[in-house]
Amino acid sequence: MENVNIKNQLVECVPNFSEGRDNAVIKQITDAIESVEGIKLLDVDAGIATNRTVVTFVGAPAAVEEAAFCAVKKAGELIDMRRHKGAHPRIGATDVLPIIPISEITLEECAQIARRLAKRIYEELGVPTYNYEAAANRPERKNLAVCRRGEYEGLEKRISDPDEAPDFGPGKFTEQAARSGATVVGARDFLLAVNYNLNTTSSKLANEVAFDVREKGRAMREGGKPNGKIIKDENGNTVFKPGTLKGTKAIGWFIDEYAIAQVSMNITDRKATPLYIAFEEVSRAAAARGLRVSGTEIIGLLPKDELINAAKYFLRKQKRSAGVCETELMKIAVKSMGLSDLAPFKPEEKVIEYLLEGGKKNKKLIAMTCKNFAEETASESPAPGGGSISAYAGALGAALAAMVANLSAAKAGWEDRLEEFSAVAERGQRIMTELLDLVDEDTAAFNKIMAVFSMPKNTEEEKSARAKALQSATLYATQVPLKTMRAAFEVFSVARDMASNGNPNSVSDAGVSALMARSAVLGAELNVKINAAGLQDRAVAKELTEEASDISAKAGKLEKEILKIVNEKIGK
After folding, report:
1. Catalytic residue chosen out of the listed positions 212, 437, 442, 509
2. Looking at 88, 269, 305, 341, which residue is catalytic?
3. Which of 14, 135, 444, 469 is found 20 to 30 A from 524 (Cα to Cα)?
4. Section 469-480 average pLDDT
């Protein structure tokens, strides 16, 4: 079974509302979206001619599902489709509502969210709903145009037709349906919009490159000649020779602002064609026509994994280890694809996950300097405390092990072991990142307990609620250091691997890695025990402390094994 990190699951929602002229109405809808905790509103694009507003927001799946429902509810209250006029096709107040996977979640999971949301919208709001794209219940309804056929004006006739009726609807044209129309809810992949800059002003050449690579390809001509007659099939339709990139649409054009031609591309299937593959293929096709791709322009936003995966690809192409920190990976991706060719590319402004973090990132303990972190720990505040320090010690142990792996990958004469050491370094980086997150999570767990003591306790009901909240916070404060122990324990496998097989000049660093991991395990174990003592459920407390003791005992044995290997190598 695939190991999915639910904590890092992120989805995007891009609802289209049939109002683009009344800013007060639009503001009320976006306020409803932002009222849900954990939601980040990224963009609000209102069109006067279309009388339509496209809103983009992101968050965890449950938060996005709730925010989408709130938006549909508010739009249904404020927008009367009987009076709506606009240039864009539409069928309802909330016209279309796609759920889009960003990270750690599949398209099918998003489709499940969409179906559940569509059902709730009808059952609680009385708004008829169709399901489209990946959430479609009928093959023909994958196409949005099929769901929206006849638009709002045709809904009254369709709603009672078994073949045309919404997936969730009343079977008749109710007052609510007349007012709000219908909503088309679905799930689709993230659409990545990207332009590839060419060292030419010829839009014709740019188009040739676009036709070479886009999935649709180019029209076939008799004799394969550029001026040959276009070939038609038996139905009179043009026959196309497919391009090399699946899940892409592309054209060539000239941009006056930059005085260059570009291949403008939409990547509709990121799994089939990641950004870096598209870059490489456009570069190849351009070179075949005497051109060069001078850079890449990202339109709108993109998920972090597109840049991470690109950086790892280019590092491997350079015969270098891909097990470096995320900041370095971002720099490699920007340089490798020329993302700053036309304007500075700032990941904090273009990457969805970074936008979601916003200003909170700089408030984290792990964003402090080493000096500031030490001074914050030494202050009279009880947090950060031993739990955070233990997690940080484990992170340093993982970092040292990753360093040895990277030095081993770069060692002269060991070129044939690059993939081996790169994989180890990436594993160390993953463990390090998890432990760094736990530095702040441990302090958050302590703050949850402290928050309980500010709760009122005047009535029996308040006392009961306070006691329940305290037990919940205490359980969390016990589970967090246990998570630290589990993560720190993983460091030993990397440290032992590097002590045994890594660069012999860095074997002492592998030993220090093991020492830091053991300190992390022992320190976190103390926190598990002291917090578990406050749990009323003794069975749970026993289960947690026994697991902690088991990890601690195993860690002690591994530390000795690794130090024995290190000392034997140092003694030679």
Report:
1. 442
2. 88
3. 469
4. 95
Question: Using an 8 Å Cβ cutoff, are 293 and 196 in contact?
Answer: yes
Sketch the domain layout of the chain as residue ranges.
6-187, 192-355, 364-571
CATH class, 6-187 region: alpha beta
Query: For residue 115, is pLDDT > 70?
Result: yes
CA angle, residues 178, 180, 182, in degrees to nearest 5: 90
Give Cα 60 distance to the centre of its chain.
10
pLDDT of residue 520: 97
Architecture of domain 364-571: Up-down Bundle (1.20)
CB distance 248 to 214 below 8 Å: yes
Q: Report yes or no: 252 and 208 within 8 Å, Cβ to Cβ.
A: yes
Pairwise CA distance, residues 284 & 503, whole Å: 37
Mean pLDDT of the chain: 92
Q: Is the pLDDT of residue 2 over 70?
A: no
| pLDDT for the residue numbered 235 | 82
- Token pair for residue 532? 């578990």
Tokens of 21: 């002229």
User: Is 88 annotated in the active site?
Assistant: yes
Fold of domain 192-355? Alpha-Beta Plaits (3.30.70)
Cα–Cα nearest to 160, from 182, 140, 141, 142: 182
Question: Rounded CA gap, 50 and 15, in Å?
Answer: 15
Structure tokens, 198: 């060419």
Tokens of 444: 């958050």
Single-letter residue type at 553: A
342-380 residue pLDDT tens:
999 999 888 988 887 764 444 578 888 999 989 989 988
Mean pLDDT of the region 266-287:
95
Per-residue DSSP letter, 191:
P
Helix (H, G, I), strand (E, B) or coil at 171: coil
Residue with tokens 């324990």: 489
